[in-house]
Amino acid sequence: MFAVFAESFSSDDPLSGLVLGEQPEPEVPDGWTTVTVKAASLNHHDLWSLRGVGLKEEALPMILGCDAAGHDEDGNEVVVHAVVSSPDWRGDETFDPRRSLLSERHPGTFAERVAVPRSNIVPKPASLSFEEAACLPTAWLTAYRMLFTQGGLKAGDTVLVQGAGGGVATALIALGRAGGLRVLATSRDEAKRAKALELGAHEVYESGERLPAKVDAVMETVGRATWAHSIRSLRPGGKLVISGTTSGPKLDDAMLSHIFFLQLSVIGSTMGTRDELASLVTMLDATGVRPLLDRTLPMDQARDGFAALAEGDVFGKIVFTR
Ligand SMILES: NC(=O)c1ccc[n+]([C@@H]2O[C@H](COP(=O)([O-])OP(=O)(O)OC[C@H]3O[C@@H](n4cnc5c(N)ncnc54)[C@H](OP(=O)(O)O)[C@@H]3O)[C@@H](O)[C@H]2O)c1
After folding, report:
1. Which residues form the Enoyl reductase (ER) domain (predicted)?
2. CA 266 to CA 284: how far, in whole Å?
3. How many angstroms is it from 25 CA to the middle of ligand 1?
4. Contact predicate 81/123, CB 8 Å
5. Which of 175, 192, 221, 314 to mutate to test the pocket of ligand 1 (most atoms within 8 A of CB)?
């Protein structure tokens, strides 16, 4: 079958190991099923895989892609949950130390067909297109868990989203607004601040700018560059939820005194569960909120999408269709 896969790694030139060509049909173990892919979205994770991060040499060639929407074996329209837990794991699969994402241990979604555990299938409502549904399982699910599970936010709360241009950040803004939150967002870039307002942010600020009032929670994916501002922006008892460190994970000053004196909570968040993905899908169906698509390309032009993401020339999700 046709697939987009990693054949080798390069940290300097990740696209050099990217191949578009033929790969064997996926194996389907007991309890698994096959989804015929209609749309699959690109993540930074796919570029990291081409750099050899999170993927072992002996796993090559590996079909890339974490996110997909398509048809199950009975022809039903479905969304694929990307987190594969070990067969004996029970409960929240994001806590399984042996979990993996599709394309790490098992072939990914940039292909005609992908094999997944039956329990990883979520029904797709007709109101969502395949392209929109394919954006949800990684960036949007991460944002949903940050806001509503780890952050415990509810209608009327105020949230600050750092780095408005990112894939997770744009999902945080749109979902926060739809969930009845007051949404503040920062960006270094004026054009991105304007787009954040269009997406649903109530107020936008330059990165590091002092806010007029403290917030209930901050959503962090930037890390080093925005950490101090995040801590300073929280009200006493506020929560900082972190799922990424785009600008780097090391801090000169973790602001520990602020954390204990103001009784702040710092909470990590990673991906989400199958049930959270089902709730996210229902939330989009109910509210009309939709992922922002940067561009849609036929899967046989996937190289152009990878190049755009590598150059940072993106606002919203890149989707490959079949
Ligand atoms: N834990 C999980 O499950 C999970 C899932 C998905 C992603 N992630 C992680 O989350 C992070 C965000 O990924 P993403 O794809 O959403 O976004 P991204 O494209 O990596 O960038 C996020 C934003 O960071 C801001 N930024 C970058 N460098 C900065 C700097 N020096 N100073 C200030 N702001 C800076 C930029 O905002 P502006 O240009 O608007 O200022 C950028 O739009 C990544 O580290 C990714 O690995 C984690």
Report:
1. 13-320
2. 28
3. 34
4. no
5. 221
Contact 314, 308 (CB under 8 A): yes
| Cβ 151 vs Cβ 217: under 8 Å | yes
Q: Identify the three-state secondary structure at position 47.
A: helix
Among all chains, which residue has been given the structure tokens 């954040």?
Answer: 196
On whether the CB atoms of residues 184 and 160 are closer than 8 A, the answer is yes
How is 239-287 classified by DSSP, letter by letter? EEEE---TT-S--S---HHHHHHTT-EEEE--S--HHHHHHHHHHHHHH
Q: What is the C-alpha separation between 278 and 133, in angstroms, rounded?
A: 11
Q: Alpha-carbon distance 246 to 224, whole Å?
A: 8
Ligand 1 centroid – CA 125 distance (Å): 29
Percent of the chain with pLDDT over 70: 100
